[in-house]
Specification:
Radius of gyration: 19 Å
Structural class: alpha+beta
Shape: flat
Order of helices and strands: EEEEEEEHEHHHHHHHHHH
Number of domains: 3
CATH architecture of the largest domain: Sandwich
CATH class of the largest domain: Mainly Beta
Distance between the termini: 17 Å
Number of helices: 11
Strand content: 15-25%
Length: about 260
């Protein structure tokens, strides 16, 4: 399967992790997508409109029997809302057509442009970036009071996400709220709207990602030591998270990713 990531347009770099393209093989195939604390927008050839995949709290299995080309953007955590025009909690564990989010006319116009002519892969992705730049400029033209509130929320979310990522999910949520000078309830409300997951669930996925990365470095792990090294209270908590986020016990996950 062809898969390639590209750095985003410089004006979008604060909001996008990357733009990417993929082409699945013509034979029947499937692959498992794990929660990664990101929101993606995807367009696939064949005349389909684009769609958003929200934050995930469990794995999904993507199956296909034909060769499919995909163009996509991956947002940084907490950044997708201003481009989608919707609070992110409504997209959690959901797929939403861009016709619903942007309106049918805008969604169809972009989908048609992406596949109308033969273009290099990166040139197709540039068309998507152009539309995102337009939406970003429109968001920045909001009334000053709305922009001030948005910037305040952005600052809190950016600090919170950075702290959770830096600690691999190990930072206590109560301590994080104290650092921010807000209540846990207020922080949970901000996460619900701007991230799509609760702070605790976001932190758990950070910890899970650390554990999956650690498994790539060893073929015969000491599971108790791995759990402790990755911030879990004990092995049973590690197993619980793998069952929720990977759909299997860590031993089974290791066998099928080796």
């Amino acid at each position: 399967m062809h898969y390639r990531e590209y750095p985003p347009h410089p004006a979008l770099a604060a909001h996008l992790d990357c733009v990417w393209a993929a082409q699945a093989p013509a034979s029947a195939h499937h692959h498992r997508v794990l929660p990664d604390n990101c929101v993606d927008l995807l367009w696939q050839d064949g005349g389909q409109a684009g769609f958003a995949v929200g934050m995930m709290s469990s794995p999904i299995l993507v199956a296909s029997s034909t060769s499919v080309r995909t163009l996509a953007v991956r947002f940084k955590p907490g950044a997708a809302g201003r481009f989608l025009g919707a609070p992110l909690h409504v997209l959690t564990d959901q797929r939403a057509d861009l016709e619903q989010l942007w309106g049918r006319s805008d969604a169809e116009r972009l989908a048609d442009a992406l596949w109308e002519y033969e273009r290099p892969e990166r040139a197709r992705l540039a068309l998507i970036e152009g539309v995102l730049l337009q939406r970003l400029r429109a968001a920045q033209a909001a009334p000053p009071s709305a922009l001030l509130a948005q910037r305040h929320a952005d600052g809190l979310i950016r600090y919170a996400l950075g702290a959770l990522e830096a600690s691999d999910g190990g930072l206590r949520i109560a301590d994080l709220a104290t650092q921010l000078g807000v209540s846990r309830q207020h922080m949970a409300t901000l996460f619900r709207q701007h991230v799509g997951l609760s702070p605790k669930l976001y932190a758990r996925i950070c910890r899970f990602r650390r554990a999956t990365a650690a498994l790539q470095q060893t073929r015969a792990p000491d599971w108790s030591q791995l759990a402790l090294a990755c911030g879990y209270f004990d092995q049973s908590h590690l197993i619980h998270d793998f069952q929720q986020f990977a759909g299997s016990a860590p031993q089974h996950f290791l066998r099928h990713t080796g």
